[in-house]
User: Which sequence fits this backbone?
């Protein structure tokens, strides 16, 4: 009886290990790339400020009206099409975004003197890291691959916890690895580091999926359908003309929770559009914030504050003619899903609790790199025939149950779910062929 229970336990272990081992083997290189690029990009704000320090920083006690600062810019670039103006926080300069043919440019103005401090391309020197991190330089297909790898990373953390769990012993022992030798040491360190990192990695991975093509779109749909993100035209005043334009289409520095919100339209009238001074006087949100200018006759002024702390996020739309507030949404107005994802994204980007957040992010990335490297070392140090020995405990029924459980987990991770279904169908097809061959023999 005891031998039966042991064999059954080994069968469960083998069935879970099979998914854990092969998925880890396939996606290990991508995990390394994401960890390296992500850990470096965490410090993008410091790197960019250091690179453009003379432009981006300014000491001032008073500010000129924003229209006066705009005029200083227009004196140097009379034909420029301004798209946005970012009002500065303490020690910063005003940033004007404008189009130079097909290239977005940033020009920086001293808030007190109106002096033009310099102009640069909107593309950062670190933008290549973002492209690699998000698409592996593979465009849309690369984005799907990254999403697939991120989805499987969550499954790997869950299956790994099951494999490392000390059955019949104190679970707290998982947190402190035994000091063994050789492969045993690597196995203990692999499990302990993964366990210590798991909560932070799940937050980072889950929040990263909010930007992905498939899971991100699903999250936006769920948040809109259940009003757990932000309702359309949330906390608005008066009837709104119909619109098919989303906030992310017309504005910069947009919070995740309001990216897919439809933007209300201005009501064209004989009045001239209000100026930027009026816009600034109408809004009272935390600086720095960005004013994106109206696009066309029915466009609106969209004011967003997303670069700082998540709890200070806001998205405000103003009628370009009357200055009326058409909609106003802050972090406090978000639904539960919108709040969770917003905080997760801030943690992911290292903005939630300053430099310490960035250092924690680096530690988690280094932990992921170690887990990948240690898994490779364990594979290289395995005993000859160890995989074949594990196959002795294969149980087709348990294999199917584990496959179905992982498939159910994949329902919340669409691309992973599809890949799991493909593997299960392939496994079923191979199993049928093997059965037919045995019957024929």
Assistant:
């Amino acid at each position: 009886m005891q031998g039966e229970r042991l064999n059954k336990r080994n069968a469960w272990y083998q069935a879970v290990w099979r998914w854990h081992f092969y998925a880890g083997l396939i996606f290990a290189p991508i995990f390394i790339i994401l960890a390296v690029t992500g850990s470096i990009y965490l410090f993008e704000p410091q790197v960019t400020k250091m690179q453009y320090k003379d432009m981006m920083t300014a000491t001032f006690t008073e500010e000129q009206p924003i229209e006066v600062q705009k005029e200083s810019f227009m004196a140097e670039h009379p034909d420029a099409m301004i798209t946005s103006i970012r009002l500065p926080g303490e020690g910063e300069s005003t940033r004007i975004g404008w189009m130079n043919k097909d290239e977005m440019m940033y020009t920086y103005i001293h808030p007190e003197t109106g002096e033009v401090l310099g102009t640069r391309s909107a593309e950062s020197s670190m933008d290549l890291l973002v492209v690699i991190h998000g698409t592996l330089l593979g465009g849309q297909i690369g984005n799907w691959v990254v999403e697939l790898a991120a989805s499987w990373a969550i499954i790997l953390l869950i299956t790994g916890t099951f494999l490392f769990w000390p059955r019949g012993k104190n679970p707290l022992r998982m947190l402190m690895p035994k000091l063994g030798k050789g492969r045993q040491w690597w196995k203990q360190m692999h499990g302990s580091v993964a366990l210590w990192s798991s909560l932070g990695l799940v937050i980072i991975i889950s929040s990263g999926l909010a930007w992905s093509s498939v899971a991100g779109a699903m999250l936006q749909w769920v948040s809109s359908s259940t009003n757990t993100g932000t309702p359309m035209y949330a906390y608005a005043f008066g009837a709104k003309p119909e619109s098919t334009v989303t906030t992310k289409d017309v504005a910069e520095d947009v919070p995740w929770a309001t990216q897919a919100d439809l933007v209300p339209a201005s009501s064209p009238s004989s009045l001239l559009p209000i100026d930027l001074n009026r816009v600034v006087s109408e809004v009272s949100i935390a600086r720095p914030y960005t004013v994106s200018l109206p696009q066309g006759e029915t466009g609106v002024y969209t004011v967003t504050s997303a670069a700082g702390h998540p709890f200070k996020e806001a998205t405000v739309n103003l009628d370009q003619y009357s200055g009326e507030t058409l909609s106003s949404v802050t972090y406090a107005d978000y639904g539960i899903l919108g709040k969770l994802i917003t905080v997760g994204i801030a943690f992911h980007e290292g903005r939630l609790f300053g430099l310490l957040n960035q250092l924690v992010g680096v530690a988690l990335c280094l932990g992921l790199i170690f887990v990948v490297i240690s898994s490779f070392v364990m594979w290289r140090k395995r005993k000859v025939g160890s995989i074949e020995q594990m196959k002795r405990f294969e149980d087709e029924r348990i294999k199917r149950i584990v496959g179905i459980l992982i498939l159910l987990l994949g329902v919340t991770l669409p691309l992973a779910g599809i890949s799991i279904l493909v593997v299960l169908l392939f496994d079923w097809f191979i199993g049928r062929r093997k059965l037919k061959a045995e019957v024929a023999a």
